[in-house]
C-alpha cells in the first residue's frame, strides 16, 4: 500500500526496469540509498497508518541488509496464474522497499543466490529444488519457505502445490524480513488449520457500519462497479493474513444484495478479491423471496420458495462464478427466519444450502439467536442441539465465542463440542463493540486464546474449542473462523492505529490458533512500528496488558453488560450505564451477579460437560474471573485472596484506571522512536482513554457503593447522583434539581454542592450534612434562560479535601429546557394520547386533527406515535411517520419562532425536515440514540395573525420524529 508514497529517489527511479513498471509498482521512499543514520523522530517519515502492517521500510542494519540483499535481491519467477502474479507483485513491492534496491522478477537465476517462487506446475526450478512429495502435502493453501543449496547456489524458495499457497508464502517471506528473521537456515512448512477464514463486515448499503468505529464503509455502492485502489489494498491486507473469504454486508440486511443492481457491483468487487484468493460472500435476508421475489411466503418447504432460491443462486453464479455463499442471521433480534413458518433452523439453512450446492457454495448459519434477555445465555444451545446432524453438508453453524454477545468476559459458548454432527465455526468480534470502540486500547487476542484453549471435554479431554473449530474433534466438512471486522474508510482503516493489532491477530489465529498472543503482539508491532527493541517491548506490553486493564476498570469478575442499553447507533455500548442494564447484572442491595446455576439460577451451567458444570456450579470452584457471570453473591463474599467482592471491585476500578495513565507514560517513552504523526495520534487516543477510564471507574464505583453502602477500605470519597438524570427544566423559571450527595467516608461531613451550568444560567449552591455511608438529597436551584435548549449539568459536591468521584456519569443531568406553557403561543408535547403530557402543555397526538378552536392540528395525513417509556415526560414519546404530515398552527400578529424538538431516547434518529410554504426551513442531522436537537424556525403572523402550515418530512425511506413543538412570540427588537 505504498500508494501514499509516490516519492522516488533519482537513483532508484533510474534503476526501475520495465517489469516493475508493467507490474505497476511504485518504489517506497525507503528504497533510497542507505545513509547509515540511526532513525530518530526527525528523520522518520510521517505515516498515516494506511499501510497497516504491510510497511516495507528499508532494513536499517547494514550487515543484515547486505545478507538480505544477497539472498533476495534476485527474484526468479517462471510464470503462473493471477494469484502468483499478485504474489510476485507484492514481493517486488515489499523487497524493493525492504532492501532499498529494485527487485523485479526474472525467469532464470544467474547470480549465486536467488529467491525462487512458484509451484511445481509452473516452474521447472521449483521442480528441481523441492521434492514433489513435499509439495503434495501442502494442499491448496499451504507452502514451504526454505533455503536450498544446489550447484553452489543458495536459493530461498517459496513453493506451493497451488497458486494460493505461493501468495501466502510470499507474504510469509516478507513478514520474516519485516521482523528481521535470519534466512540462512529457513525451513518452514505451513498449512492452515481451517479452510474457512472469514472477514465479516457489518456494513450497510447507505455507507453506515453497524458497530463500526473507523468512519464510514469503504464499499461505495453508488460508485461500484467502478473500482478504487482501496479495494485492491483491502484484498492485499486480507491475503497478508491469509483470510480467504469476505462477507461484505451486515448480518442485519435487506434482501437487495441478492439481485441487480447489486450483482454487477458485487461481481466487480469479487474480481478484485479473486486476485488475492478471497471469495466474496453476502448475507442473505431469509425473507428475500417475499421482498425481492414477490412471493407471499418464505417458508422453506414451499416449492415456490425453493424455486426462487434456486433461480437466484443461478443468477448469482452466472455473474460471480467463484461466489462463496451466504451468511444468515435468522429468527434473532427481529430478523425473519424459518421459525416464522414453524420450521427449524436446519430447514432454513438446508433450503439455502440446496440452492448453493450445485456450485460448491456454502451457508454459514448463525447460532446467535437472541429473542429474550432471560433466555439469552441458553437459547442457542436449546435451539441448535436438537438439530445436530440435520444440517446439510454444505451448511456450517457460526457460533459466537460466548453465549451472550462479545462481552469483556464470557465463558466459551456451550455449543462448542455439542454439535458432533453439525459443521461448526467460531465467530469472534474484531471490532470492539463492548470493549471500548476505537478509543480504548483493548487487544483481544489473549481473550480469544482463552476461549480457543477452553477444553469443552465434550468428546473427552483435549476437545478444546480450537480443536473443535479446526475440525480435529469431529469429522466436519466445513469449519473455521469468522471475524466481525473493524475496518472503515478511516485513512488508517481501523480508526485507531493500535486497533489494527486485533485485525492482524484475528487473521493470524484463524490460520494457526496455536500462535501465542505474545508472538502475535510482537510480530504486529515489528511490522507496524519497526524493530527497535524498546518499541517492540513497550508496544507488546501495552497490547498484552490492555484487555485485563479494560476489564479491571469496566467489569471485573464477569459482571457483564454494563454498557448503556442496546441501540444501533455508533455510540452504542460505549459508556457505562449500570442503572439501565440491571436485567443483565442483577445487582441489588443484597448482592451482585447473575445466578446461572442449575441449583438456584437459570440452569445455564447444565449445558457444559459434567466436570465443567460442577466447577461452574460452585462459587468456590468456578474461575474467579467468571464468578459474577455465574453467581449472585453477597458483596462481602470472599475471593481466594481473602478480599471481599466489593473491595475487589473498588480496587480493580482504581488500579485499572490508574494503569491507563501509566500506559500513556510508557508510550511517551517512544517519542523519538515512532514517527511523529502516529506517535501523536496514539498519544491523543490514550489521553481520551484516560478520561473514559475515569468515567467508568467513578460511575461504577459510585453505583456499587450506592447499592451496597459498604465503604472502600482503602479510599474515601464523596459522590453525587442526579436522579432522574434526564429531566425537563422550565426556561426563565426557578427549578429545583434533586441531587443526592453520598458520603463514602468514615465520618459525617458538612457538604456543599454546586452545579456546573452553561453561560447565561443561574444556580445556587446547596449545603447539607451527610452522615457516613448515607445519602442526602439536596434541591439545587437552577434558572435556565427562557429559550428552548438542551444542556448537561454537572453536580459537584465537596467537603474540605475529601476526594470526589467527579467523573461519574451519574453526577450529570441531561436537561431539556422548555418555556412554561403560559409564555408560549403554542406549547405542544407530542406523543400518543395514552402517554403523560408535560404540565400545562397540550397533547399533540395522531388524533389532533386541525380545528380552529384548538389553534393547531394535522391537516391531511396524520402521523403515528410512540411512547418509549424512557427519559423525561417530553422526550420519552413522539409522533413519527415516513410520509410527510402537515401541522397547521394559528399565529397571532407579529413575529414569533417555532422550536421543534426531535430525537429518540432509544435508537438513532433520522433527519426531520421542515418546510413552510414549500420552502425548506430547517433540517436536523441524523442523531445517535439518546441525542436530541431543537430546530428553530422564525415565523411571521403578519399584522393580524394567520395560519401557517409546517410540513414535516424525512428523506426517502426514512422516518421523522417530533417530540415537542413550542411557538413563542419574539420580544420587541
Ligand atoms: C449484537 C450487536 C448487534 C448485532 C448482533 C448480531 O447484538 O449489538 O448490532 O446485530 O450482535 O451479532 O447479530
From TrEMBL:
GO BP annotation list: xylan catabolic process
Alpha glucuronidase N-terminal domain location: 52-173
Gene3D superfamilies: Alpha-glucuronidase, C-terminal domain, Chitobiase/beta-hexosaminidase domain 2-like, Galactose-binding lectin, Glycosidases
Class of this enzyme: hydrolase
Catalytic activity, reaction form: Hydrolysis of (1->2)-alpha-D-(4-O-methyl)glucuronosyl links in the main chain of hardwood xylans
Signal peptide limits: 1-31
GO molecular function, one term: alpha-glucuronidase activity
Annotated ranges, domain Glycosyl hydrolase family 67 catalytic: 177-493
EC number: 3.2.1.131
SUPFAM superfamilies reported for this sequence: (Trans)glycosidases (SSF51445), beta-N-acetylhexosaminidase-like domain (SSF55545)
Pfam families the record matches: Glyco_hydro_67C (PF07477), Glyco_hydro_67M (PF07488), Glyco_hydro_67N (PF03648)
Domain called Glycosyl hydrolase family 67 C-terminal: residue spans: 494-714
Keyword Phosphoprotein recorded: no
This protein's UniProt keywords: Carbohydrate metabolism, Glycosidase, Hydrolase, Polysaccharide degradation, Signal, Xylan degradation
Keyword Hydrolase attached: yes
Family: Belongs to the glycosyl hydrolase 67 family.
Subunit: Homodimer.
Protein name: Xylan alpha-1,2-glucuronidase
Organism: Streptomyces melanosporofaciens
Amino acid at each position: 500500500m505504498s500508494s501514499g508514497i509516490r516519492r522516488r529517489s533519482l537513483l532508484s527511479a533510474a534503476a526501475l526496469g520495465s517489469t516493475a513498471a508493467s507490474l505497476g509498482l511504485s518504489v517506497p521512499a525507503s528504497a533510497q540509498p542507505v545513509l547509515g543514520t540511526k532513525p530518530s523522530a526527525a528523520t522518520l517519515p510521517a505515516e498515516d497508518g494506511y499501510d497497516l502492517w504491510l510497511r516495507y521500510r528499508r532494513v536499517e542494519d547494514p550487515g543484515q541488509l547486505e545478507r538480505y540483499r544477497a539472498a533476495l535481491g534476485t527474484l526468479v519467477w517462471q510464470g503462473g496464474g493471477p494469484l502468483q502474479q499478485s504474489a510476485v507483485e507484492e514481493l517486488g513491492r515489499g523487497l524493493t522497499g525492504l532492501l532499498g534496491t529494485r527487485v523485479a522478477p526474472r525467469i532464470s537465476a544467474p547470480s549465486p543466490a536467488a529467491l525462487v517462487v512458484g509451484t511445481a506446475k509452473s516452474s521447472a526450478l521449483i521442480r528441481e529444488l523441492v521434492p514433489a512429495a513435499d509439495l503434495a502435502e501442502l494442499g491448496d493453501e499451504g507452502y514451504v519457505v526454505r533455503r536450498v543449496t544446489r550447484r553452489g547456489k543458495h536459493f530461498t524458495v517459496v513453493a506451493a502445490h497451488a497458486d494460493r499457497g505461493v501468495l501466502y508464502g510470499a507474504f510469509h517471506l516478507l513478514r520474516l524480513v519485516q521482523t528481521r528473521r535470519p534466512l540462512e537456515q529457513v525451513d518452514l512448512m505451513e498449512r492452515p488449520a481451517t479452510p474457512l477464514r472469514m472477514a465479516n463486515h457489518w456494513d450497510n448499503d447507505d455507507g453506515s457500519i453497524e458497530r463500526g468505529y473507523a468512519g464510514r464503509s469503504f464499499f461505495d455502492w453508488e460508485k461500484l462497479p467502478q473500482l478504487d485502489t482501496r479495494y485492491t489494498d483491502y484484498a492485499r491486507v486480507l491475503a497478508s493474513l491469509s483470510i480467504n473469504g469476505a462477507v461484505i454486508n451486515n448480518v442485519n440486511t435487506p434482501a437487495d444484495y441478492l439481485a441487480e443492481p447489486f450483482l454487477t457491483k458485487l461481481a466487480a468487487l469479487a474480481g478484485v478479491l479473486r486476485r488475492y484468493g478471497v471469495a466474496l460472500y453476502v448475507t442473505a435476508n431469509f425473507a428475500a423471496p417475499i421482498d425481492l421475489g414477490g412471493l407471499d411466503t418464505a417458508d422453506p418447504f414451499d416449492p415456490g420458495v425453493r424455486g426462487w432460491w434456486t433461480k437466484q443462486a443461478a443468477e448469482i453464479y452466472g455473474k460471480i462464478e467463484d461466489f462463496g455463499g451466504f451468511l444468515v442471521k435468522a429468527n434473532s433480534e427481529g430478523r425473519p427466519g424459518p421459525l416464522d413458518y414453524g420450521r427449524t433452523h436446519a430447514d432454513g439453512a438446508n433450503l439455502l444450502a440446496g440452492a448453493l450446492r450445485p456450485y460448491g457454495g456454502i451457508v454459514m448459519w448463525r447460532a446467535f439467536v437472541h429473542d429474550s434477555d432471560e433466555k439469552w445465555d441458553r437459547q442457542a444451545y436449546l435451539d441448535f442441539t436438537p438439530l445436530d446432524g440435520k444440517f446439510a453438508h454444505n451448511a456450517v453453524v457460526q457460533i459466537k465465542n460466548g453465549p451472550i454477545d462479545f462481552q469483556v468476559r464470557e465463558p466459551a459458548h456451550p455449543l462448542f463440542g455439542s454439535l458432533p454432527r453439525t459443521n461448526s465455526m467460531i465467530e469472534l468480534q474484531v471490532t470492539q463493540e463492548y470493549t471500548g470502540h476505537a478509543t480504548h486500547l483493548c487487544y483481544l487476542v489473549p481473550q480469544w486464546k482463552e476461549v480457543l484453549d477452553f477444553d469443552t471435554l465434550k468428546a473427552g479431554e483435549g476437545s478444546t474449542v480450537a480443536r473443535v473449530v479446526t475440525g480435529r474433534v469431529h469429522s466436519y466438512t466445513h469449519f473455521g473462523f469468522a471475524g466481525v471486522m473493524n475496518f472503515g474508510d478511516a485513512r488508517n482503516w481501523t480508526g485507531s492505529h493500535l486497533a489494527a493489532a486485533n485485525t492482524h491477530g484475528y487473521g493470524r489465529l484463524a490460520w494457526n490458533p496455536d500462535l501465542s498472543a505474545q508472538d502475535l503482539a510482537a510480530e504486529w508491532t515489528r511490522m507496524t512500528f519497526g524493530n527497535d527493541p524498546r518499541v517492540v517491548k513497550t508496544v507488546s506490553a501495552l497490547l498484552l496488558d490492555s484487555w485485563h486493564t479494560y476489564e479491571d476498570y469496566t467489569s471485573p469478575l464477569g459482571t457483564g453488560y454494563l454498557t448503556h442499553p442496546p441501540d444501533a447507533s455508533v455510540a452504542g455500548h460505549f459508556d457505562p450505564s449500570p442503572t439501565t442494564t440491571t436485567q443483565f447484572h442483577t445487582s441489588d442491595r443484597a448482592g451482585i451477579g447473575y445466578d446461572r446455576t442449575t441449583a438456584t439460577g437459570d440452569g445455564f451451567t447444565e449445558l457444559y460437560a459434567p466436570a465443567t458444570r460442577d466447577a461452574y456450579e460452585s462459587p468456590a470452584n468456578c474461575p474467579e474471573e467468571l464468578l459474577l457471570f455465574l453467581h449472585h453473591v453477597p458483596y462481602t463474599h470472599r475471593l481466594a485472596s481473602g478480599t471481599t467482592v466489593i473491595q475487589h471491585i473498588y480496587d480493580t476500578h482504581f488500579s485499572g484506571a490508574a494503569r491507563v495513565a501509566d500506559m500513556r507514560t510508557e508510550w511517551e517513552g517512544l517519542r523519538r522512536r515512532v514517527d511523529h504523526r502516529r506517535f501523536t495520534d496514539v498519544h491523543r487516543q490514550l489521553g481520551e482513554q484516560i478520561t473514559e477510564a475515569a468515567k467508568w471507574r467513578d460511575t461504577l464505583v459510585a453505583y456499587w457503593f450506592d447499592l451496597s453502602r459498604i465503604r472502600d477500605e482503602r479510599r474515601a470519597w464523596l459522590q453525587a447522583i442526579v436522579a432522574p438524570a434526564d429531566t425537563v427544566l422550565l426556561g426563565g423559571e426557578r427549578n429545583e434539581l434533586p441531587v443526592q450527595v453520598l458520603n463514602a467516608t468514615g465520618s459525617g461531613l458538612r457538604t456543599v454542592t454546586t452545579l456546573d451550568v452553561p453561560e447565561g444560567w443561574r444556580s445556587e449552591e446547596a449545603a447539607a450534612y451527610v452522615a457516613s455511608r448515607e445519602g442526602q438529597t439536596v434541591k439545587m436551584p437552577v434558572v435556565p434562560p427562557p429559550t428552548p435548549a438542551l444542556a448537561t449539568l454537572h453536580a459537584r459536591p465537596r467537603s474540605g479535601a475529601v476526594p470526589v468521584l467527579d467523573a461519574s456519569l451519574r453526577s450529570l443531568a441531561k436537561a431539556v429546557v422548555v418555556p412554561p406553557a403560559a409564555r408560549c403561543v403554542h406549547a405542544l408535547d407530542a406523543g400518543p394520547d395514552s402517554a403523560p403530557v408535560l404540565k400545562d402543555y397540550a397533547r399533540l397526538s395522531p388524533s389532533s386533527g386541525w380545528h380552529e378552536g384548538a389553534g393547531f392540528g394535522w391537516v391531511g395525513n396524520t402521523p403515528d406515535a410512540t411512547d418509549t417509556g424512557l427519559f423525561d415526560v417530553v422526550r420519552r414519546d413522539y409522533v413519527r411517520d415516513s410520509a410527510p404530515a402537515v401541522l397547521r398552527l394559528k399565529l397571532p400578529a407579529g413575529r414569533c419562532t417555532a422550536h421543534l424538538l426531535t430525537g429518540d431516547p432509544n435508537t438513532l434518529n433520522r433527519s426531520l425536515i421542515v418546510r413552510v410554504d414549500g420552502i425548506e426551513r430547517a433540517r436536523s442531522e441524523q442523531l445517535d440514540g439518546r441525542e436530541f436537537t431543537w430546530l428553530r424556525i422564525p415565523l411571521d403572523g403578519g399584522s393580524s395573525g394567520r395560519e401557517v402550515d409546517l410540513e414535516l418530512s424525512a428523506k426517502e425511506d426514512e422516518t421523522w420524529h417530533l417530540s415537542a413543538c413550542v411557538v413563542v412570540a419574539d420580544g420587541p427588537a
